[in-house]
């Protein structure tokens, strides 16, 4: 499963810092919703595809970004076509396709850690309101990390039940998956503890004290 | 038993409970003194006293014998119900955070300890927690990836690695933090033979003192010391040649 994850590369977009990229998506998203001429939207989509070419993203990967949303787009098109006419449907589909592909391009060319660093920096002004930016960015990273793992757990549970002759049952799958996920969360919390994770905001952390404690016991980096 | 030794009080930092001899600077050892541990009514460890100084210590025993709990005591993930654990003089009860910086812990299932989506990001996790600067972080990641032959996986999504590579990543994630001790809880249990060998090789090459909990007797046959746990007690404590033979005999 390739979930819009980073695709290593060295294009202009890969080297661009993530802040402007995220800002571009936000601005472009807003602009796209004010455009309602299909030609302008088609041109926007064309520009986005051009950006894919510049970022040297292989076409199959580009197509894979939009494929999971095709049925939603199809449904939207049909509904709008019936209510407001086919042109409204075309406008909506072009708009979403351009936006989804643009956002996907950002995730494809930005490392999750760079992205979360940017989000962390962007959220820093809110720290005064009691928000811990480091925790937010960690949560985003971990969500991305654990989606494939939880998908795997779900597959295992479903296989185990199928092996014992159970048909489709959402509840029968959901309960063991949730239980295993909670257990997983417990283990992960332990592992983070074991790797010295400290949830207090970085600015308030006392590295000097830790370093002093290290000197006391003679811990030196190897 | 050593708890009955005369109590010397010494207050170095903040006043703290010092039941026993004061922490002495040592050349690296873990001291377990009068440790018992209970989960509810169940006593999983029964008044254990041990000093670990060897470079390679194996912990074996049947399921539920208390080995994993024992391992978790060593870096303060678990604090004993009674008694205390000192790592180079640091008490896991009062200085858990400092202890965890010296004692790395590798869990059985690498999937549960890889936190970040990309290999190099995960390696950076612990280093960022130590407050190291970017250059130092990059240098340590380079070194550990080269050491375990994971250079080509550097930017790969961690969930696409093979089982053996995941375990090596988990070990690497701990080693980059330069701990002085590494505790490994059944590191080869989920691996096939080839990956088992790869991980065994990695353990053999550790610069650190390693304490390995395992069912894999082959893995520990050249260790310095073997502890056999049974029902919360250490029933055999000997060199591997003798300890493992007795353990296998006892299992029938």
TrEMBL record, chain A:
Where does it reside? Answer: Membrane
Q: Where is this region: Disordered?
A: 195-222
Sorted alphabetically, which keywords does the UniProt record give? Membrane, Transmembrane, Transmembrane helix
List the Pfam families hit by this protein, alphabetically: CbiQ (PF02361)
The organism's place on the tree of life at top rank:
Bacteria
| Primary localization | membrane
An example Gene Ontology CC term for this record: plasma membrane
Q: Where are the transmembrane segments?
A: 12-35, 41-59, 66-83, 89-108, 129-151
Query: What is the membrane topology noted in the UniProt record heading this document?
Result: Multi-pass membrane protein
UniProt lists the family membership as follows:
Belongs to the CbiQ family.
From the Swiss-Prot or TrEMBL record, give the protein name. Answer: Biotin transport system permease protein
UniProtKB/TrEMBL annotation, chain B:
| Record has Kinase as a keyword | no
- Chain segments carrying region Disordered: 1-29
Gene3D superfamilies membership: P-loop containing nucleotide triphosphate hydrolases
> Might you report a single GO cellular component term?
ATP-binding cassette (ABC) transporter complex
Q: Which SUPFAM superfamilies match?
A: P-loop containing nucleoside triphosphate hydrolases
Task: Give the molecular function GO annotations.
Answer: ATP binding; ATP hydrolysis activity; ATPase-coupled transmembrane transporter activity
Key words, A-Z: ATP-binding, Hydrolase, Nucleotide-binding, Transport
Top-level taxonomic group: Bacteria
One Pfam entry for this protein is ABC_tran
Q: What SMART domains is this protein classified in?
A: AAA
| Span of domain ABC transporter | 30-248
Against PROSITE patterns, the record matches this protein to: ABC_TRANSPORTER_1, ABC_TRANSPORTER_2
Per the UniProt entry, the Enzyme Commission number(s) are: 3.6.3.-
What class does this enzyme belong to in the EC scheme? Answer: hydrolase
Q: Does the keyword S-adenosyl-L-methionine apply?
A: no
The UniProt similarity line reads: Belongs to the ABC transporter superfamily.
Q: What is this protein called?
A: Biotin transport system ATP-binding protein
Q: Name its species.
A: Roseospira visakhapatnamensis
